[in-house]
Amino acid sequence: MSLAAYRHLFVRGTDPAAPPLLLLHGTGGSEEDLIPVAHRLSPGSAMLAPRGDVLENGAPRFFRRFAEGVFDLDDVRRRTHALADFVATAAESRGFDRTRLLALGYSNGANIAGTLLLLRPETLGGALLFRAMVVLDEPPPAGSLGGRRVLLANGDRDPIVPPDHPGRLAGLLRAGGAEVTQHLAPAAHGLMPGDFAAAAGWLAAARGNGGR
User: Fold this and answer.
1) For residue 208, is pLDDT > 70?
2) pTM of the prediction?
3) 31: left (phi over 0), alpha (psi -120 to 50) or beta
4) What is the Cα–Cα distance from 11 to 28, expressed in whole angstroms?
5) 11 φ/ψ angles, rounded to the nearest 5 degrees
6) Is 107 one of the catalytic residues?
7) What percentage of the chain's residues is helix, strand, coil (to nearest 5)?
8) Beta strands in the chain (DSSP E)
9) What are the pLDDT digits (tens) for 68-97?
């Protein structure tokens, strides 16, 4: 797949010890949205930030939905595989190690990071998912996520993510062998200072573990 498949930004890393990051924005966002967050949480990381290639009333997303929380699952699968192929091309072209690559996703971006873990686990070394929900209710092959660490950061009064979804998503990822940490913030769908503190601590541990 060509790098032109997604409009994107690439920020070259300045610290070899910092894991490379795949930045995946929420609905209506852009490839620039999470760059400041990534700089704050993991200084020196290389960053690959694609823009979602689906438009919903002009708002970029990473896959289609029919309504809030009702997803076009065929489109989810197709676009998950397309994003995985793009990341593989970018890793080869830009020279970063996919085994250390951590997804940092928010909302729709967190959701496609979750489907990457389920459908194409070789794409990522782990993930930090802000406000993710269950999109594909399909466990990955046993052992396919061995060695991967995942942080699920959700809000306890999120009107978009059903309250049972964080636990269900954690169960799916654990079924594949992932080490999942759950953080529940006193928050809705927006991010709060406690989310960033939890993410910083989780990333510091990931960095100490070689990015995974």
Assistant:
1) no
2) 0.95
3) alpha
4) 22
5) -110, 120
6) yes
7) 35, 20, 40
8) 8-11, 21-24, 47-50, 54-56, 59-61, 65-67, 70-71, 102-106, 126-130, 149-155, 179-185
9) 889 999 999 999 999 999 999 999 999 999
Catalytic annotation, pick one of 42, 45, 107, 144? 107
pLDDT score for 212:
52
**Chain segment 123-160, per-residue pLDDT in tens:** 999 999 999 999 999 999 999 999 999 999 999 999 99
Active-site pick, 144, 158, 165, 183: 158
Q: Residue 14 corresponds to which tokens in the numbers above? A: 């300045």
Residues 6+ apart with CB under 8 A from 164: none
Q: What is the mean pLDDT of residues 169-194?
A: 97
CA distance from start to end of the chain: 26
Q: Which one-letter DSSP state was computed for residue 69?
A: T
Catalytic residue among 8, 39, 81, 189: 189
Segments of 122-195 assigned E as strands: 126-130, 149-155, 179-185
- Would you say 145 and 171 are in contact if contact means Cβ atoms under 8 Å apart? no
> Does the annotation mark 158 as catalytic?
yes
Instruction: List CB contacts of 74: < 8 A, sequence separation 6 or more.
Output: none
C-alpha torsion angle, residues 40, 150, 54, 82 (rounded to 10): 120
Helices 108-119, 73-94: inter-axial angle, 10-degree rounding: 80
And the tokens for 55?
């438009």
Cα angle value 84/114/137 (rounded, 5°):
115
